[in-house]
Amino acid sequence: MQKKSNSNIQAPCKKQSTQAATRMTIKEARQNAYRQLSEAWEKQKKTAGPYAQKPDFFLDIDVILQELLQVERSFLLAHNETKLKQKDIKRFFALIQKRSRGLPIAYIVGKKEFYGLSFFVSPHVLIPKPDTEILVEKALELAREKSRKIGSREVQAKSRCLRVLDLCTGSGCIALSFAQEFYKTKENSPPLELFMSDISLAALRLAKKNTKQLFPRSLKKQKNSDKLQIKIVRSNLFQNIKGSFDFILTNPPYVPTRLTDELLLDGRSEPRLALDGGKDGLRLIRQIAKDAKNYLKKDGWILIEAGEYHAKEVAQILRERGFSEVAILQDLSGQERVIFGQH
Ligand code: GLN
Q: CB of 304 closer than 6 A to ligand 1?
């Protein structure tokens, strides 16, 4: 199957069609790519598992072209008849070939938007998803409440710094978008100490790259006056974490093993390590709920992303562990996605 689509993809660059390839317009490249992706999809969908949906290939093609030519989408539309250079055609169809095997567009272009920011991604980390935005939104709401208290001196001087832990940080999208938004507000925000942890070294490398891109000064040791300090820690859950936090934010692996197997059938190449939460999906969440109180300040909050299929169970786990104010939030598509509670 792969071989066949391979030969299709190569066709425009082969000897006899070199001329044609050098003359290929943007429009022709898009049509050709659409045909290839659709054909590959028709074959793959039989084995891709029950969760595979036909992607928006026109959008994917344009994202690849935009990245390749470094232009806006409107340029592609306005320059349909522009001829592509041969080296661009070659590169374009090589990327289309990757896409035709199911590799997500975010891994192909190496980045993904989340909460209005662009994050570097690779198959070592989950692709940031809009489902997670509600977790950041709620954390910000609670953090602003907390900073008002800090501002009004309801808390002791030594606690006038907000400490936030992003457990299983992956690309770092939760922690970094939280930090970015936190300082957008006009109010006098307290200093923020942000810890990003993950068991995967490859993920941490990427988290570091994203941190350097968004907050170039935050990783250095700075004077007290500096508002944001970020620490990146390799840790198996809480193993290497020290101190106590105002917030623990986490999107841990929570997909039941069988479902993980099925999800990965579509060639998405997301890391099993970041998805697989054991037989019922709750292995890590149970562990986190059990230990979290040792790492939360009094009145500190935990916010956990989970599967819509076990959100209520996670809420119950938090209650059993003694958390109060436990509630479930829906994501943008109306699925029960985030569970939070207070120490
Ligand atoms: N569906 C979620 C995702 O793909 C699962 C993430 C997880 O297990 N943490 O992002």
A: no
Distance 6 CA to ligand 1 centre (A): 31
Q: pLDDT per position in the chain (343 positions), as tens?
A: 333 333 333 344 444 444 455 579 999 999 999 999 999 999 888 887 777 788 899 999 999 999 999 999 999 999 999 999 999 999 999 999 999 999 999 999 999 999 999 999 999 999 999 999 999 999 999 999 998 887 666 555 556 789 999 999 999 999 999 999 998 865 678 899 999 999 999 999 999 999 999 998 888 766 545 689 999 999 999 999 999 999 999 999 999 999 999 999 888 999 999 999 999 999 999 999 999 999 999 999 999 999 999 999 999 999 999 999 999 999 999 999 999 999 9
- The Cα 292–Cα 300 span in angstroms is 10
State in Å: Cα 124 to ligand 1 middle. Answer: 13
Whether 306 is in the pocket of ligand 1, judged by its Cβ within 6 Å, is no
Is pTM beyond 0.85? Reply is yes
**Ligand 1 in contact with 254 (CB < 6 A)?**
yes
Q: Can you tell me which residue has the tokens 């199957």?
A: 1
Q: Is the CB of 251 inside a 6 Å radius of any atom of ligand 1?
A: yes
Residues in the chain: 343
Nearest residue to 177 via CA among 237, 268, 91, 115: 115
